[in-house]
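User: Predict structure, ligand pyridoxal-5'-phosphate.
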Amino acid sequence: MKRKALRLDTRLIHVGEPEPRIAGAVSMPVFQSATFEALGRTDYHDLGYIRLNNTPNHIQLHAKLADAEGTEAALVTSSGMAAITTTLLSVLTAGDHLLAQDCLYGGTHNFITEDLMDVGIDYDFIDGSDPASWPDRLRPATRAIYVETMTNPLLGVADHTALVDFAQTHGLLTIIDNTLATPINFRPHEHGYDIVVHSGTKYLNGHSDIVAGAVMGAHDVIAQAKRKLDHLGGCLDPHACFLLQRGLKTLGLRVRAQNRNALAIAEALAAHPSVIQVNYAGLPSHPHHDRAATLFDGCGGLLSFEVAGGVCTADAFIDRLRLPVRAPSLGGVESLVTRPAATSHAGMTTQDRQRLGIGDGLIRIAVGIEDTDDLVADFEQALNA
Ligand SMILES: *Cc1c(COP(=O)(O)O)cnc(C)c1O
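Assistant: Predicted complex:
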């Protein structure tokens, strides 16, 4: 299938499907087999085996994932964290130094601060919006920069253009977690990022029914990551591969609906007298709105806000919501609501959270694809009660 002539929505349906179709099946069948006939293959990493990430379900899914992010190759993993840890461990070795954005996803932050030092990899955090502060953090051993497209839960947008320029000037590898934007809203590789990682658990699959991850990049980078993943064992089961392959086909429809719903909710909240702050890069009031408007085709389905009155008022508001489920995670078809101070950021002290701008009463919404008016009406009734 010729790639460049077709738009992403078309390619998400047709690229990465077997040609010819297997027994005529319109949908990619599940190959529920742990091992495959050797057929003369002698290299360990090429033997057909689920842990070696090369069953027919892996091969087709890799083609679809690589095409989605516009890279040469892709590797699917058993979770987003497997994608992130495998990538970092395959591009860095003992003695290397990593520059990582502050306020990363909690699991990534903890891996960098608690585990990388055990294998002799050092790090420093950088403010993604403050290019003037980066040169001071650079060391002769600095090898790579790790950032996220948007931060969670405040939806900050790093200066991606300056980051890629800085990395290219200093010969650093760039790695970006594009989970929150998805290639529908932002395609990092087009902006010069080398490696893209995803939690496929979120928007890529989109139905809150599997945990998965992905790494996208050049052939050699992905081959290196595959060898590391073969050893670490973080492979995705073929049935989960099938579900992720299916989910990807509706990515465009879902993410654009989530962009619309999140913007409508953000606008309604911002207009309400009981709301003191709304964090959504699609709102002109967001400090990184202009950057987001230049870089992104949409600002995604995640937003956060604070109501006047603190924790008790916030919890009472959440209890009055009828549609969103009170649960962590994001990117599914159903709206979810959490209070980060009580869930994703509960491990931090109140002072540390305050320093990052995460108030104890902050409410985070992961918007689904329900009807826009129904969602807005639900938020309004919960605020007005
Ligand atoms: C959820 C998430 C992860 C981790 O993904 P899992 O699939 O839960 O391992 C990493 N990065 C971001 C931005 C996430 O939202």
